[in-house]
Amino acid sequence: MDRNRFRFGRAVRRELAGFSLSFIAALLVIVLTIAITVFISWKGLSVFFVHHVSPANIFSLDWWPDRPPEQGGPQVGILTFLVGSILTSLLAALLSAPLGITVAVFMTEISPHLGRRILQPVIELLAGIPSVVYGYIGLSVLVPFIRENLGGTGFSLLAGVLVLAVMILPTIASVSTDALRALPRSLKEAAYALGATRWQTIRLILIPAARAGLLTAVVLAVARAFGEALAVQMVIGNKREIPHSILDPLITLTSGITMDMGYTVQGSLWNDTLWFMATILLAISFLFILTIRVFIGRGEAR
Length: 302
Description:
The structure is a single chain. This protein is mainly α. Helix content is 75%, strand content 1%. Strands 1-2 form a two-stranded antiparallel ribbon.
């Protein structure tokens, strides 16, 4: 009896210790998230509350953060950076999403055996390659190819889109594969029982049923593309102008932050503007997370 009581007490203590450790870890994550959000927002919004920059000026095309007062004073318009990030990320997603979803369909419905043995390891290998390697390959191979065959300097929107498309392809393919594999087998069996072909089953039954998961994969990929800095910075030319063609150089929010942050003084208008650009990236990340939650909720409702 005493031995059973001792074992029961030890089990209770272990249960309590495990619960306490899990609770502390979860609380730490919440506190860190709130602290990072508050810090970045406070630094970024000081552009308005400390330096009194108007929204019309901050979202303009004029970027002269170090211009002296006798020449008109500094201008910190970030619209060029924002447009560059949007163009690069969305075009990369438009290029990579159809390919990634097609790969997922092939791995789950066309040739599952080949997909597990060959395609899945290849996708995992692509996902594990550091971004600097993608950037260096783009700088060494893609930029000279564009310069010699299409014109321009090679550092361009096209180079950034192609590098990003390859980088986000594993995300789209992996999440789409999980979404398709999670579908009930009865959907496919019912379609075959009604006389549908394999292509009709995929196109009319499986893809619409997995729509929420597929959209989640694309949103996750766009979120990663928005936050990518080094690989894109190496191939886009980092020119502070809005591109008029896919062969023109451009700059993104992440490139602007990484290039200028080390050369600014803490608390200056230039430095706080870079923090505001980081705040925009944070807000966009929250928007993507909210969008994913909406898609997941719709999928569960169905």
